[in-house]
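hey m, so remember when u said the tokens were messed up on ur end? i reran from scratch. heres the input so u can diff it against urs
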Amino acid sequence: MTEAVHYSMVIEWSPEDQGYVVTLPEWAGIYTMPATDGKTYEEAVARGRNVLENFIDFAREDNLPLPEPHVYVAHEDVA
């Protein structure tokens, strides 16, 4: 799924959960966050991508618009 690679995925260590939690910032107002988790970083990435692809599929099935992906913009130093 091409769109999935354009969305942000934030992966953070959770001492409380003793694992990594995944949030999908563009989808935060649509679905409950964190979106998923994983015992390892790699597991969190895989699960996050799977959830992201599901979110896109759900939105399409319900004829809902996809949220705009966040885009990185480099800022020039003003010093």
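this time it looks ok to me. The helical segments are 41-61. if urs says something different then somethings off w ur setup not the seq
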